[in-house]
Each structure stands twice: as structure tokens, then as C-alpha cells.
Amino acid sequence: MAEGGRGRADDLVRETVRETDPLGIGTATLTFIMFTAIPRFFNDGKGDNYGVVSKLEGTLLLSRSTFPYFMLVAFEGGGPVRALILLLASPFLFLLESLSLESISLKIMIFISMAGLKVTDVKAVAKAVLPRFFLKDLRASAFKKFSCSSRHGKKYVVTLCPRIIVEAFLREYLNVDGVFGAELRIFDGYCTGFVSSPVLMSGFCETESLTLAIGDDTSINSGFCDASKSPCDSFTSLFQRRFIVAVEDDPSPLQRKDYPRPLIFHDGRLVVKPTPLNCLAILLWIPIGLLIAIFRLLAAKLLPCKLGLVAAAATGMKIGAKFHTCHPRDINNLPFNNNTNKNPCTLYVCSHRTLIDPVMVANVLQRPVTAVTYSLSWVSEMLSPIRTVRLSRDRVKDGEAMRGLLKKGDLVVCPEGTTCREPYLLRFSPLFSEVAEVIVPVAVEAKGSMFYGTSVRGHKGLDSFFFLMNPRPEYHLEFLKNIIVGTQLSTSPSIINGDYRKPSSFEIANRVQRLIGDALGFECTNLTRRDKYRMLAGNDGIDPRMRIHN
After folding, report:
1. pTM of this prediction?
2. Are 394 and 466 found together in one domain?
3. How many angstroms from the chain centroid is the CA of residue 17?
4. pLDDT digits (tens, 9 = 90+) for 410-455
5. Are residues 291 and 250 part of one domain?
6. C-alpha dihedral over 502, 505, 509, 510, to 10 degrees?
7. What Gene Ontology cellular-component terms does the record carry (predicted)?
8. Under a CB-based contact definition with an 8 Å cutoff, are residues 48 and 22 in contact?
């Protein structure tokens, strides 16, 4: 039976209904196939009030494997030793899966990756690290159908993973109402590595667990799954309406522009998805990468700028720079400079990608500069090849300190106050616009193929090491046109008593942010360092016992 004519195979909908037997003997269960497109099915109002349950692995996510997510929990929450143990166990785990012992394999992964970890650490990894990897693995076709599946009914997701590591992502990004997954056994705030509820695998165990979870809720009568395996029927047999997501020959992940909410902040050291092969490659590279990172640091610290750049290039590091204008070293004789309190040197205002942004500015300019920062780990301060000055977070004192430094030489500042990995710029602090006459915006972009050189929860002193451990790290700097504060920056200049109206410090900061954002193709935001740390770590990012730079 078909409704609405012939449809597409990837919009296959199976529906089971009960009808009275024509002979009057009793009732019969009839299963028929509708070729109505899923979006049309719900647009017609048929699915508005129905609760929907979808599988996560293999349906909403492209991959069925849960190994990368347990590896992230093991590495980010437990450390490299725990991650190494999980990697060494991976051949045995895949052997169990090939023997249809997926439940045992999953329980072993849970135990290795989580036994002995604090529950708060697991939740922190689930909130700050895992969403980026889930979003990159989100199946575009399944997500679009699931997101429009039920307007007024509730949405639920079934996962093989423990609920604690997927719930934050599913609730924040997919707006689900509930998650069906294994529950961990907790003792005194620590994970024991065992589960207190059955692991939701395919077959009878899954059916039994879901039946207990759903209970007598008759509003949950629609199920999503993929059609790649026959055990899918054991899942959809629980529901009156069954929606089968066809397995495409070349499935496409959800594009960034289609994310249900922007991914601006995330944490974790690993850039690539930690599949077993990627983990093996990283493990083999770490000893070599550590030696290369030490060499790059020593070359920048001990060699002149030109030789330091040659040494960096010889080890595979790529540094590019683009200049839009030459930068004046002395502005004392400029006709508009009537303020003797201003400083003759240049203030370089950079977007903040990693800790070594000011070092790259100095290397490209081939002259010494001073970097100001609110805080800095003692390891980074010791290894820095340029002078660094720590600010006090007191606006008056910091302004005086920056003016004094500008009288002695060029200065580099990152007014965002923290790094951002994604194509967004955080709000610029306006303090820099109050202390300098000449401002040079610098659009900075940094890329690494294995490791991120920033961290919220990790050891700050290792940030530079991790970035320089990448096989071919890239840095690109674009020096934009000079800005003369008080004249060039006024977007709507007005003349009062023969003088140009001077823009406020906030106008200057916002304009510089937009210039850098346009050069990089980044989106400007009003988010701050405090917002970042509250989202990722649940605090303001200020620890009075430590000197932290992020």
C-alpha cells in the first residue's frame, strides 16, 4: 500500500497497525510499507504529538564504533597511561565484537576508561570535549529527519554508551528530552567501572531494557533506526511507527552551518578522532614530536630571529605573513599628534589562537617586542624567547604599565584575554585603545594536525609543547593597515571647534575586532574569557593560587 505515490528509498517508513479480521474471527496485525517522505509525513501533522526514539550509534551518528569516545574519556579524564591500556586492549575488543560479544566488549571499555575516575571529571569531558566529535560524526540526513520528527511530542535517544557521557551533548545540541543508556555504579563520587543497568545492545537485552524504560507511556510510539542490520527489527518492534534511515553509499556529516547551535568553545588536546589507527600513529609520533618540540623551543630561545625561522622551517613548521603597509617607528612629527602623553612606539593587537602568538609577531617583524598577559605559567615564562610582563587586572595600574612599556619599545597584546579554537573572535577589551597612538591589528591563525596548543582543564605549562609537537604546525599572520587613534577610526567623523571627534575606547576596540574578523573570515561575538570558562569548566577561570595563561 502506498500513500502519495512512489517515494524515495531513503524516506522508507514502515508502519504497523491492528485491524479487524474480515471474517470476524478476531484481530490481525498487518505490516505495510508507506513510501511517504518522512518530512511530508510530519508536515501533514501525523507525527506532531508522537514521542520519537532514535538510536545514536549508526543512525544519528555515521559510525557504529564507540571506541573513540571511550578513548577520549580515558585520555582526557584519566591520562595517557589509561589511554595506552585501552589502545593495547583494542585488538581483543574487536575480536569480541567479531564473535558477536559486543556487550562484553563494551563493558570492558567502560571499565578500562572509567574505573577510578571522579564523576565530575567524566562529566567535564562529556561537556567540554565530546560534543565536537559527536557533531563531526552527526549524519546529516538522519539529523534533519529526527529534528523535524515531532513538534509537540518528546524525543528520546538510545545509546550503547553510558548515559553520563552522551547526555550533555544530546540535550544541549539535539534538544532531546531523555536518554536511554547504561547507568554507571558510583561509589563516593568515583566511577567503579561497572554498570548498574543492562547495556543496551541489539536483541532481547535491548528490547527488555527499553520496555522497562518506556513503561506504560503510550505517547512514545515512533522509532528511528538504520536499515543496515536485521537486528534493527528488535528495536522497532516496540513501536507502532517505524522510521528506517537508509544507509547511503557515501554518507555526509552535518555541515558546520547546519549545526543546531554554534560550536564556539571546546576543550581537549586531540585534534583528530582517536580511532585505533589514529591512536597508534599518535603514540608512535609522541617521542619524535617531543624531541622536535624541544628543538623548536630552543631554536626560538637561543638563535637570532632569522636563524630561528630557518630552524622552524627545517622541522616542517610553516610560518606565513602578509603586510598591508609599513609601520612607522616614530609618529612624533605627525600633524595630528598634539598629545605629548602618547607613546611613539607601536601597539600590535592580535587575535589570540595560542600562547606563542606574540613570539610569532616578533619573529616575523625581526625585532624585539614585549608581550603583556594577565597571567603566565612559570614554565612558559621561562621558555619564552621574548620579554613578558604580567598585568594585575587593575585597569588603572595596567594602563600605566602599558604606557610605560610603549615608551621603551613595541608592545603586543591579545585583547580577547583567552584563546578560541573555532572561527570566532571574542570581545576585545578596550584598554589597549587608551594607551597607544598607533595600533596595528594583526589577524593570527594557527593550525595543528594532531594536538591543540591550548587547554582549559589541562596543564597550562604544556600548551607550547603540545602545539610544537605537531608534525607540521602552521601559523599565518596578516598585519593590517595602521590605525591612528582619534582620526582614522572614527566611523562618522564630526568636527567640533575645528577638532575631529575622538571615538570612544569601546568603538575603537569593536572596530579593530571587526577588521581582524573580516580579514580572517571569523564571526565577532560578545563572549568573554569568563563565558568560556563557565561553559567548559563551570568557573570563572581565575585561580588565585596559580598563575595561569590560556
Report:
1. 0.84
2. yes
3. 44
4. 999 999 999 999 999 999 999 998 898 889 999 999 999 999 999 9
5. no
6. -70
7. membrane
8. no
